Structure formats: C-alpha cells, structure tokens
C-alpha cells in the first residue's frame, strides 16, 4: 500500500507536537499536505518529501555517505520515496539498504524517536537542466536507528549513487539541525528494549497465551499464539509500567510480582530488530472471564502442545526454556478439577445491603445486580477483598475488620467449572461507594435486605439470604 497523505500529515503533526517552534519553518510542508498533488511523488513541484536513515554505532558515531547526485555532499543515507513504501519509516529503511547494503534487520529503533522522525529538514535543491529538473525543495523526514550488533556491518555502497561512506562523531554530523537534536537527545550507542511482554504461568506448568487476529496482516504475529504485551508509550516511566499497562489494556489483567526474566530480540513489522524486555509472573485466574480487547482469545496451555500450535519459533523456544528452568509440580490427577475462588464483599448498614448494577456489556451477568466481587489471584482472600473494594468502589477496608460469613460452592451449568464463593462482612470501612470501573459497574445502591432487586445474581441472593438466616454454607447447581 503506497504512502497516504493522512499518514504523512499524522507524522508531521506528531513531530510538531514535540517541536512546536518549527511550525513556521514547516509551513510549506503543511501547505503541500493541504494541496491536491501527491506530496510523496518526486514529480510534485515546487516541493516534495524525502526520507533518511540516521544510523548510530556503539561508539555514538553517525553513518554518512557521499551522494553523487548532490555534488558529492556528505549526508546520511536517504532519498525519494517509492510506490511500494508502506510508511515514511520503511522508506528510510529501504534507502538505507539500497545505498549502503545495511538491511533493516541490522538496526533497531531508538527510545529517542520511537517510530517518529527525530528531525524534518528543509533544504533547497538546485536546478539540473541537464536532467530536466528545475529548482525545488525537499522536506526530509529523518529517522534514527541503533546498530543491532556490536560491530558495524560491512557496507556495500550503491556505486551509481554513492561514492563512499564514513562514520562521524555526533559533534561532526554535517546537518546542523540534526546535529543539534542528536546532541540534545544524547542517544547511547547501545540499543535498549522498547517493548515489553509477560510470561504468565500458574506455577503448575501452564502458560497464559494470547491468540492474535489472523485477518490483520499489518500487525505483529498475525494468527499466532504469543505473549501478552506491547510497545512503550511516552507516559510509561519504565518497561514494567509498559507491561502492566498492556496487560490492563489487552485483557483487564493485573499480575502481581512481575519480575524481569530476559531480553529477547524479534523482527518487527518494519523488518527492524526489536529487543523485548520479557517479564514473568504467576496468576491463577480463569482466562475465559477476561474481557479481551485485542486478538481472539487467551488460554492456559502446556508446553507439550506448543509443537502443534501456530507460534513463532522464538516464542516457543523462550517458553520451553522457561519451563525447563522452572520445574512444575505434577499436575492434578485426571479426575481433579481446580475450583475458581471468588471473593465477595457483604456490606450492610441499617438493614440495607450494597449492590452494584453490572454493565450491560459485561461478559458475566450483564445488566444484573451483584455484590462487589473479584477473583483471587496470587494473593490471600482478604488481600483480594481489600484490593477489589478499593479498585471497584474506592472503599478502604482493614483486613482485621473483616470476617468470613458465608461460603457458596456451585457449578453454573452441567459440566461447568466448579466455583467457590467466599463472602466476607466488613464491620468498618472508609469512603462512599463510587464508580471506579464504569466498564464493569454502572451504579452502586443500597437495597433493603428484605426486598432485594431483580435481576440479582442467583448465588449472591442465596448467600445474602443464608447470611441473614445465620447459615454458613450453600451448595448450588450440583446434581444429587
């Protein structure tokens, strides 16, 4: 798919958001984008766009080449776009490979300019009557990269366009605007991870994997089982922030105790090498209850299934290495079925019980009243209760002020996963119920315990009635 005007405009506006003082100097580019001519076509006059690659080695030197077409000027690799370029970034990578022989897989994006140009340069091109070219202007989008490996790759210059290559220190970069930005950014010579993923396991040999969409060829790993995770955003202070945010955004998932495990390299959608910081952590929840926002599904899987699944070899090797390093205890016997543990808050004042109306689009009990509840993760039941009360309703509860008042053991449907619901009464709390997660709960209301609303989650009704009757235990859904 050729470059689109919308892509070029979005890239320009993102750049100007970082460099608002350059809006006046780029007024001509903005006018070009407002016009009808193709801004990426070299035949568009009196101006069009070009793309360049700024490659930094381990010694913080920048690759320059001598362009024959520019009267021997020493510049960074770059040139005009082509119809097959999918983005400005891939145009810069193509020019890099054509002019120096350095492939996209030999470079990595840098933190200083993740997928965005570090500089948009404006320079005038003299007329070349011999080639039938009149004087015009280039708006050059410059992308900065690190070399992926310790040693610079062999450079094979494109003889018809390039007469030589050299590595120059940052202070000697030939373009003054680029030199200023590089000296301000102070990029190191070594690439660093810009993406973060999580190996999530249950401590018993199962891994939580994400099946990505197969009908989106522009995404990474389409149709493959992969780890949850994604790219760093400007608001992320650390890569741990990145992976936590990605887990929340992709599956509303919180995993406590995530720790760094390894840095792995993968190939990005643009062909560059991408170092990924991989974290690992334990979780024991039910993936079918996660509100997935991306991909097809998440599921627990064991390593013996990996050879039969659509999965990148690098992902499989990483997971198998983790499994070999973390000997899991023997799994449950064939007839043993793990029970899902849910923790519930029974809050009562003056004969009224606090209930929440679940969002109509909720995967479970949509548009139905329910007590405040959540699934136990790698935590105690009272810790789960305290966390859920604060996350869902802004209530602060001391575990010492809680007591277990009822237990429900149930199955929702024949053959369904058995569940244990623990109902805790809070004798004291701080705060007034508020809608902290409006995508899950749309209202909190106190109801007379003798006149409960409809519809109400059946096992919650049974538990409330059991608590008021002084019963400690209820079974639901089991065949007699």
Description:
With 480 residues, the chain is of the alpha+beta class. The protein is 20% helix and 31% strand. It is built from eight helices and 24 strands. The strands form five sheets. Strands 9, 10, 11, 12, 13, 14 and 15 form a seven-stranded mixed sheet that branches. The longest helix is centred in the N-terminal third of the chain and has 14 residues, at 5-18.
Poorly predicted tracts of residues: none
The shape is elongated
* Helical proportion, percent range: 10-25%
Radius of gyration: 29 Å
What descriptors fit this protein?
alpha+beta, 480 residues, 5-stranded mixed sheet, 7-stranded mixed sheet, 8 helices
Which helices and strands appear, and what pairs or packs with what?
Blueprint: H1 5-18, H2 27-34, E1 47-56, E2 61-67, E3 74-75, E4 78-80, H3 88-100, E5 107-109, E6 119-125, E7 136-147, E8 162-169, H4 176-185, E9 195-201, E10 207-211, E11 225-226, E12 228-231, H5 239-251, E13 259-267, E14 273-282, E15 297-301, H6 313-325, E16 340-346, E17 348-349, E18 352-358, E19 369-370, E20 372-375, H7 381-393, E21 402-411, E22 418-426, E23 441-448, H8 458-469, E24 473-476
Parallel strand pairs: 1-7, 9-14, 16-22, 21-24
Antiparallel strand pairs: 1-4, 2-3, 2-8, 5-7, 6-7, 9-10, 9-12, 10-11, 10-15, 13-14, 16-20, 17-18, 18-19, 18-23, 21-22
């Amino acid at each position: 798919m050729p470059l689109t005007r919308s892509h070029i405009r979005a890239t320009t506006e993102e750049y100007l958001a970082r460099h608002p003082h350059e809006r006046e100097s780029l007024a001509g580019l903005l006018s070009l984008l407002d016009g009808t001519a193709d801004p990426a076509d070299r035949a568009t006059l009196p101006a069009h766009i070009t793309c360049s690659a700024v490659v930094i080695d381990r010694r913080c030197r920048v690759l320059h080449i001598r362009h024959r077409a520019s009267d021997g000027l020493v510049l960074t690799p770059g040139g005009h776009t082509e119809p097959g370029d999918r983005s400005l970034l891939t145009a810069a990578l193509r020019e890099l490979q054509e002019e120096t022989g350095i492939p996209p897989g030999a470079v990595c994006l840098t933190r200083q300019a993740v997928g965005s140009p570090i500089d948009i340069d404006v320079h005038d091109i003299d007329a070349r009557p011999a080639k039938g070219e009149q004087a015009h202007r280039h708006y050059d989008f410059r992308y900065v990269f690190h070399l992926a490996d310790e040693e610079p790759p062999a450079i094979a210059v494109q003889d018809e366009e390039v007469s030589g290559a050299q590595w120059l220190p940052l202070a000697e970069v030939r373009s003054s605007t680029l030199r200023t930005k590089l000296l301000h950014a102070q990029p190191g010579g070594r690439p660093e991870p810009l993406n973060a993923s999580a190996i999530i396991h249950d401590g018993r040999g199962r891994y939580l994997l994400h099946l990505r969409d197969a009908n989106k060829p522009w995404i990474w790993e389409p149709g493959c089982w992969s780890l949850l995770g994604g790219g760093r955003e400007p608001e992320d202070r650390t890569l741990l922030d990145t992976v936590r945010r990605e887990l929340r955004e992709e599956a509303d998932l919180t995993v406590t105790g995530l720790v760094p495990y390894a840095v792995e390299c993968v190939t990005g959608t643009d062909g560059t090498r991408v170092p990924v910081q991989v974290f690992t952590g334990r979780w024991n929840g039910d993936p079918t209850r996660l509100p997935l926002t991306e991909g097809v599904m998440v599921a627990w899987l064991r390593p013996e299934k990996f050879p039969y699944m659509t999965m990148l070899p690098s992902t499989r090797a990483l997971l198998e290495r983790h499994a070999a390093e973390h000997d899991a205890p023997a799994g449950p016997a064939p007839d043993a079925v793990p029970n899902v543990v849910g923790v519930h808050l029974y809050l009562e004042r003056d004969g009224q019980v606090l209930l929440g109306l679940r969002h109509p689009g909720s995967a479970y009990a949509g548009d139905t009243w329910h007590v405040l509840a959540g699934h136990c993760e790698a935590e105690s039941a009272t810790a789960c209760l305290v966390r859920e009360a604060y996350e869902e309703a802004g209530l602060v509860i001391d575990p010492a002020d809680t007591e277990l008042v009822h237990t429900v053991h149930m199955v929702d449907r024949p053959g369904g996963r058995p569940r244990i619901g623990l109902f805790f009464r809070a004798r004291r709390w701080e705060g007034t119920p508020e809608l902290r997660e409006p995508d899950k709960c749309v209202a909190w209301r106190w109801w007379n315990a003798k006149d409960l609303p409809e519809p109400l989650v059946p096992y919650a009704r049974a538990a409330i009635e059991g608590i008021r009757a002084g019963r400690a235990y209820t079974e639901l859904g089991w065949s007699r």
